[in-house]
Records
---
Amino acid sequence: MLSDNPEESTIPNLAKTAEIIGQLGEELAFVAPNQDAGLLPINRCVMDLEELAERDIPLSVTAGLKVARGWLDQTLDGPGKFTEETIRDFNGWHAWMTSVLLAWERGTDMPAWPEGWDADHPPAAGAEVGNTVATASTSGDEELPIHLNLAEDLEFLREFHGESVELLQDIEQGILVLEDNPTDAGTIDSIFRAFHTFKGGAGFLHLEALRDLAHDLESLLDAVRRSELRITFEIIDLILAGADALKHFTQEIGAQIQGTNPGAPILVATRQIIGRVQSILRGETEPVPALQDMGTQFDAAGTTEELSAPTAEISEQPAAPKHRSTKASASRESVVTASSGFVKLDTSKLDNLVDIVGELVIAQSMVVQNPDVQKINSLQLVRCLRQLSRITTELQRNAMSLRMVPIRGMFHKMNRLVRDLAAQQHKQVQLVLEGEETELDRNLVEKLSDPLVHMIRNAVDHGLEYPADRIANGKPESGTIRLSASHQRGGIVIRIQDDGRGLDARRILAKALERELVKDSASLNEAEIFALIFLPGFSTAEKVTDLSGRGVGMDVVRRNIESLRGKIEIQSVRGEGTTFTILLPLTLAIIDGLLVGVGSDRYIIPTLSIRESFRPRPGMVSTVQEQGEVVSVRGRQTPVLRLGRYLGTTSSVVNPEDGIIVVVESGDSARGLLVDELIGKQEVVIKSLGEVFEQQNILAGGAVLGDGWVGLILDVDTLVKMPYLPPAASPAAPPLS
Amino acid sequence: MNQKSASKVEPAAKAGRYLTFRLGEESYGLPVLNVREIIRLCPITPVPRMPAHIKGVINLRGTVIAVFDLRAKFQLAPTSYGERTCIIVVQVVSPSGGSTLMGAIVDAVEEVVQLTADEIEATPDFGGAPDTQYILGLATSQGGVKTLLDIEKIFVEDGSLSLIPKSGPEPQSNPSR
C-alpha cells in the first residue's frame, strides 16, 4: 500500500486524507451562494479523495465521499453554482468528515451517519433534491434535441468539437482492437475514458442528449471493465452505433460552428441506443424496444450507477463503493493525459515557428562569422558562442521534427473504412498494417489521405472476391489487404497490396479502346495496359457503390500523387492480386544534402542519390568523339557532366583533375557530375521555388543555407536522364579560339 | 487609336494609392494593395538557365521567392546596384488562382501617393516601342509623370507564371580544353 508520508505507516493514507480534507475546508471558506467560485477546486479535492479511496481507507470516509460526490454532481450538472443549501450541506459534511478523521486517527468508533444523507442515491436516480435535468432526459420517451449556444460558447464548442473528433477516432480504433482481442484491458479502459471525457465536455456545454448517451456508453464500458459483462459482437455494434450517433452530433456541431444553420436544434436518435445499453446492463441479452424499456428506466439508471445496496456497501462490501472513485480517478487520468500528452495548434503557427527558427539559425551564424566578432580574443565569448550555436542547432532540429508525424493516424483510419466496406459487401477482409511508425511531413500525410482512401476502396470493391469465389479458387476465405509504409531510396514508399483477383488486362484494354483512350492495341505491353487505368475518363467500375465510384477515378489519385512529386506504379498478377506502389520523394521534408561549389555558385545534391565522390586522377576521364567525356568508376565508364558548363555558370575547372566528380544515380543509370569543390554536408529543408520555376526540371527546390543565402537543390533525375551529350554552349562557357 | 478628345479612353488604372519608385530617371507606380513589403537588396542566388531579367531567388524569412530585375524586364540599360536599390515584394495572383510572392528590383522607392481618377490617363499609343502591355496608365502628379504598371502582367508570361527557360540543347560548341 502506498503511503505518501512515511511517518504514517501505521495508519496508511490518513495524513493524505487529512491534508485534502483540510484543503477542501479552506476552499469551502471562500464559496458564496449563487457563485461558482470554489466549485472546481472542491471537485478536485473530492476527486483526489476518491482516488485515495481506492486504497485502504475507512468505509465511513468512502461513504461520506459518495455523498459529497452526489451533491457535487448535482451542482455541476444542474445550476453550476452553490446555493445556501449546498454550502450548508458541505460545511456539515466537512465537520463530520473531520470527526471521522479524528476517530480514524485515534482508532475510536466512527461518528454516527448523519440523518438525511443518502450515500446510495446518486443524482441520476433523481433522489431527493430536484435534479430535473438528468431525470427528465433519462426518463423522457422522446428524442431530445440539443441546442447550441453559439453566442456564448463558441470557443468552448470549437474546443469540444476538436476534442470530440479525436476521441471518436480513439473509440473507433479501440473497438477494432477489441474485435480481435475482446479482453484487452488497456483498450477497454481507453474507450471508457474517451466516453467519459466526452460526457464531461457535453455536460459542461449543457448538451444533455449527448451527455446522456455518452454516459450510458461509459456505464456499459465500465461494466465491461469490471468484468461484469463480456464483450460480445452485440456490445461492439452497440458501441459503434453509439459512437456513430456521437459522431453525427459532432459533425452537426462542427457544421454550426462553421456557420451552417447556426442555432438550429440538433436531433439524433439516441433513445434506442440508450435503451439497448440499459437492457444489456440489466442483463438482458436481447435488445428490447425502446418504449417498453421506459418503465424501468429509473431502476436502470440506478443499476448503471451502483450495483449494490447502501448498507451492504458500507458494512460488508468494500469493493462496491470503489466504483464511483474508479470513475473519478479515471476522469482525472484522462484530464492529465489530455493536458500533458498533446497540444493542438494551428499549422500556420507551426510553419511560422519553423521559419523563425530558421531565421534564428541564420542570424546566429551571422554573428559567429562576423569578422568583428571573430577579432575579439576572448575565451569566454568563444564558449558562449559555441553554446549558442549548440542550442540553436538543437532548437532547429526540434522545430523541424514538429512537422514530422507518423503515418499511423492515417493508416488507422483505413481500419474503419475496410471494416465498413467489408460488412457492406459481405466480404471478409483483413487489413494488415506495416510500418505505421514511418514518419513523414504532416502536409504530405494530409494530401495522401484521399488517394489512399480511394485505393483502399478500390481494393475492397473491385480487388477482392466474395468469400465463395475465393474458396472456389483455392484461396483463404478472408481476403487480405496489406498497407505498408517505409523509407526507401531516399523517399517514402507506400504499398497497397491485395490478394484479390488482379487486374484483367484484356478487359482494361477493351474498355480503353471502347472509350477511345488508345488506338492501337498491338503495341502495348501488360504494364502499359495497366497504366491505362490512370487515364482520365477510364473507370472499370460497372456499378456505383456507396463508397467507391463517386466519379473519382484513378486519374485523380495519380494527379494527387504527382502533385506531391510522387510516382505510382502497379503490379498485378491475374488471380493473385494487385499491388499499388506509391513512391514519394521527401520533397516536403528534410533531406541530407551535399553542398557543392561551381564557380561562384553553390548547389545542393541530395545525399541519397550520390553514390560516391572523388577527385579524378589524370587519365581517369577520357573523351568520346572529342565531345563526350566518360570517367571510369570501378571499371565502368560513366558519362561525365560538367555541371558548370551545363548550368551556364563560370567554372574555374578546366581539367577534370582540378575538380571533383560526384557520381549520382537515378533508377539504373548513373552520371558523374564535375564540380569545382565540395563544401560540406548539410541537412536542409526543401522549399518550393514557387510557380515561377515550375516548368523547369533542373532544380528540385531551394533551401535556406546557414548564411541566409538560398541554395538550389539539383534534380538528379534530370541530370542523369538528360541526353548523353551535354548541351554545353551556355553563354558563360569560355569560347574557344 | 488614342485621341486627345474630351471623352478620354477609360484608363485601366483605377484611382487609389500607388507606391512609386524609380528606374533611372523615370518614375513608376504599383498599386499599393499588391505590395507586401520593401526590403533592402540582399544576396540573390542566381538560377541557371533563366531569362536575364530573372535575377534568381532570395530567402524572405524562410520563404524562397523569385526576384526580377525590372530594368532588365523593360530592357533599360543595366546599372550597378547602389545604396538605394531595393526589392519590392509584391503579391501576385497567379493564373492558377493561388497567390505568389515575388520580388522586383528597383533603383529606389519614392513614396506612396494617392492618385485621383483625374490624374490618371490611359496609355498613349507609342506606335510599337516601347511595349505598353505592362502599362495600366500614366499619372501626372506633382509635376512628374508616373507610369503605372500592371504588376500581374509583368510576372505572367504566356498566361502562366512559369517562365519556361530558353532551353533546348543549343548548338554544341567544342569542349574547352
---
Amino acid sequence: MEFNCEKKELQTGVSMIEKIVSTRSTLPIIGNLLFEAQKNSIKISANNLEIGMELSIKATVSKEGSALLPAKTLSGIVSKLPETKIGFKLGENSTIKINYDQSHFNLHALPADEFPALNKVKEGKTFNISPETLHSMIKQTIFAVSGSEEKYVLTGVLLEAGKSSQAGDQTNVRLVATDGYRLAKRGEKIELKSDPGISVIVPAKALSELAKIIDGRDKGEVKIHVSNEQISFRYDDVYLVSRLIQGQFPDYRQVIPKKSATKITLSASEMLRAAERAAVIAAGSANVSAFEVRGGKLYITANTPDVGSVTEVIAADVKGVEKARVSFNIRLITDVLNVIDAEMVTLELGEGLSPGVIKPEGQTEYLYIVMPIRTQEAA
Amino acid sequence: MTIKLLPDDLINKIAAGEVIERPASVVKELVENSLDAGATRVMVEVQEAGKKLISVADNGSGMTEAETKLALQRHSTSKITSADDLFAIKTLGFRGEALPSIASVAKMELAPNPAGQGLTAEVKTLFYNTPARKKFLKSNATEMGHIGDIIAKYALARPAVAFRLTADGKVLLNSPGTGNLLDAVLAVYGPELTRELVPVDHPFRSGRVHGLISRPTISRLDKNYETFFVNGRYVKNFLLNRALEEAYRTLIPNGRYPVAILFVEIDPAQVDVNVHPTKREVKFADNTMVMQAVREAVQVALEVTGKDMGADAGIDAGGEMVEIGSNDQLPISGFETGLQTLITASNSESTELSVDPAQPLTPIYQLMPTYIVATDGRELVLIDQHAAHERTLYDQLSGKKTAGASQILLVPETIELSVGETLALMSNLDNLKCFGFEIAEFGSNSFIVRAVPAVSAKIPAKQLLHDIVTELLEEGGSTQLEVKKENIRKLVACHSAIKAGERLTPLEMAGLIRALFLTENPLTCPHGRPTMIRISQAELTKMFGR
Ligand SMILES: Nc1ncnc2c1ncn2[C@@H]1O[C@H](COP(=O)(O)OP(=O)(O)OP(=O)(O)O)[C@@H](O)[C@H]1O
Ligand SMILES: [Mg+2]
Ligand SMILES: [Zn+2]
C-alpha cells in the first residue's frame, strides 16, 4: 500500500471516525483503523462491534493495498502534521512510513485481514431523509434518554417511520426518547415512496455520532436501512452501522395528555433564562421548583434553607384557567428549552398533578412531556 | 410392541444430541482431546462459523492409523479403565463418547501427523444428516461467538498452551502460551482490563484458589466475565459466582459484577464432573467449604489492594500491582498505549490551570473515576464522589420542603418481590412514603410504583426500590423487619447517590462540591465515613523529604 493525500482530508476523515474506536475493548484489534487504498481514494473503517463506520478520502494511490493502524496514535500524529501532502507507505515487516516535508514517522501496522469486517445491512426496510431534518430531530430528543444501563431500552431512541396510529398525528417519521420521568417526541412529515413500517430502538451513541457527521450539512439525503438486528446510515461517503436495542419501548401514545386546563404562551429564551437562574437555588433542594400561573404571568419559584429563594416572573399569554402551584424538576425544564428553536413556547398544564407539556408555539411536530413533583405543600 | 436393541449408529446420534448441540460443542470436544493429549499448541480453524468446517490441529501425543479407527467406537477411551477411576478424573475427557458422537452427525477425519507428533481432526458439514438440528443453528455471528468463547476460556485455563483461532482466514485470537496467566488474559481481554486485575492465591483445607480478579473500581453489567476453572476444567456453577459476588458486595454497585479468572484446585475425590453430558457442571462434596474458600481468597486479595489505594496511595502503589509481562514481550497495543500517554500529556500542556475563588474547592481531575481531585490553592483534597453526594442528598431528605417530595413516573412500574422482600417492604411502607415513594400493593408479592423521592430522579425507579428492599431485608433480618426512619433516609440517600465509577463532567464536579459545602456536615457521609481527605502543604513537604 502506498498513497499520498492532503493533511486536511486525512485529518477530517480520521477525526470523524476515531470517535467510535473503542479504547475499552476486550479485543485489542478493534482499537485500530483499517486503511484500504484503491483507485483514487482511501477507505477508512472502524468497528467497535456495536457501531461501525466507513468513509473515503481523496488520495493519489500509487500502490493498492491495506493495513491496520492504531487509531489513537494516528489521530494524535495527524492533528499535528503540517498542512501539506502526507505520504503513506507500507514497508516490510509491516511498518507504515508516514512522510511529509523532509520528516517521517514509522508506525507499526497490523495485517488488515485480522480486522473484524463491518457487518453491513444488506436487506431490510429503507427510507431517505434530509440531513438537516434528521439532525434537528436527534438534537431535540436524544437528551431525554436514560443514562442508566439498568434500563437498557431507555438508553436508546425509538425510531418510527410510517403512518402514525395516533389520531391527529400527521407525521411519518418520529424519534421518541424517555428516561421514565420525561419524554421527548419529535416527528416530521417527509416524502416517503412507500410506508416502510419501521419501529426500532437505536442506541443513543449511534445517533450522537451520526449527528456529528451531518451537523451543518444541508445537501443530499441520509439513506437509512433497517434490518432485524441493525440500522445503517449512509451520507455522502460516510457509512455508519449500529446494532439495534432489542426490547419493548414504552407506549408513548398512552402518556400524551389528551387535554389541558391551562395553556400559556411565552418567550422561549425568557423562560430559559428564568429557569436557569431558579436552578441555581433549586440545586440545594432536589431541583424542585414551583410553577404558578396568575394574572397573566408565569411565576417560577425555588428555595433552599440556608441559601435563599428566588421568584421569577415572566409575562405570558394565558388561555384557560389560572393554575395553582405545581412543581417540576427544573433541570428537566431547562433541558428542553435548550433544544427548542422556536421564539415562543407553549406550556400546557392539567388539573392537579398531571404532566406538563411543552411545545414550540404553533408546531405540532415537537412535544415534551414532563412529570410533576408532589411536594408536601401541594398535597 | 416389540422391544429391539437400538443399532449403534442410532445410539450415537442420540448421544450426539446431548453432547453436540452446535458447532462450538464440536470445537470444545476436539480442543479438550488435544489438551488431554498434552498439546502445547492448538490451532483451530473454522469456516462459516463451523457449519462448513472445523479443524483442530495439535502437537500432542497423536495416534496411530489403527487407533483412529478405534477412537471412533463408542466408549473407547484411553483415559479411564475402571469405575474407580471415575472418581478421580484428571483429564477433560473420560467417557469415550465425543468422537463417535461427532462422527454420527458430521463427516469426520482424524489425520495423525506423519512426523508422529500431533493430530489434526477435521469435521465437515456438521448436522448434514440431522436437518432438524441444523435448522436450530443461529446466525453465523452468534455461532462464532460461542466458538470464540470456548477458545477464550481454554486460553485462560491453560496459559502454557498457545491457542490460535482462525475464522474464514481471519485470526480472531492468538495466545502466546508463555505459561503466564497475564499474557493469556492480555490476549483475550486486552490491556485496559488486564491492568485492572490483581492476583489471588489462597490455600484451603482441600486445595487452593488462585487467579486474577478485578479491582473494585471496575465492574461489568453481566456475569460473563466471571470465569471459573475447577481442576483446569471450565465450569458453570452458580455457587462459585455467588461466593465471588459476596466478596465484592459493598465494593461495587448493585447489579454489577466483577471480572474474575479463578482456578479452584481441589482434591478430585471432592468433586463430581459427571453430572451433565457437556461436563460443564460440577458438584462438590462440600459446597460450603468451597464457597468459603473462594470468598476468603477474594476478600484477602481485595484487602491488599484496598490498602494499596488508601492512605499510601501514590507513594508505594507499585507494591502489589500486577505487572503486565516484561517489556520486550509487550504486544503492539501496549506500545500504543504508552505512546498515547505521551501524546495526551503534550496535548494538555497548553491548558492553564487556575483555582476558582468562588468555589470552596476547584476540581482538577476525576480519578478512577471515583474520587474528585480538588484544591483550594493551598491543600490537595481528594473527595469521594459517592460519599459526598450521599451527604448532600441526605441533607435534602431532611429538609422540610424536599423531605417528602415525590417525582411522579411517566408510566407506573410494577415490581415483583420474593416473599421475604415483600414482608420487608410492607413493614417499612409508611417510612418509605415519608420520603416520597408512592407504592401500592398489586396482587400477591407485587407492587406498583407511581413515584420516587425527588432526589432520586436520575435512577430508574425499579432498580432503586429493589436495591433498598434488598438492604432492608439484610438490615432487619427475619425477626424484626421494620427499621428506623433514620435508616430509610440513609438508604434512600445511598442508593440515589452517584456511584463510584460514574464519570462526571467538570461542571458536575463543581456543582457537587458546592452542594456538599452547603450541608450541615460536609466532612462525613451519613454513615460517618469521611467525604474528603486533605493533604496539607506541610504533609507534602514531609513526604517529599524537602
Ligand atoms: N487429539 C488427540 N490426540 C491424541 N489422542 C486423541 C486425540 N483425540 C482423541 N484421542 C484419543 O481418542 C480417544 C477417544 O476420544 P473421545 O473424545 O471420543 O473420548 P474421551 O476424550 O476419552 O472422552 P469424552 O468423550 O468424554 O471426551 C481418547 O480417549 C484418546 O485416547
Ligand atoms: Mg474427548
Ligand atoms: Zn453509600
